[in-house]
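input
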Amino acid sequence: KNGNIYTGVCIDTCSTLGICAERNAIHTMITNNDEKIDKIVCIMPGGKIGGSPCGACREFIMQMGPDSKKIEILLNDITYETKKMEELMPDWWGDN
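output
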């Protein structure tokens, strides 16, 4: 929301103690005293832009605050198709 761009990398481990790039970037954002997210762009293996956060990342993103449901996810960099988090989380409980 402040115009800053934060990046993260996916670290896969055999014991599932790794971390996805989305959560990695959000941790960096928080470390830098930012707290609101406007948009998320996922870069898939091979450099393809567009994708959707995994379930663990969706849950984490949702818990970033009541406005999180309005965060836009770029799904396709050719058609510029986006979805809001509330569309990716069908039983949004963040308002409760």
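quick obs: The longest strand covers residues 72-76.
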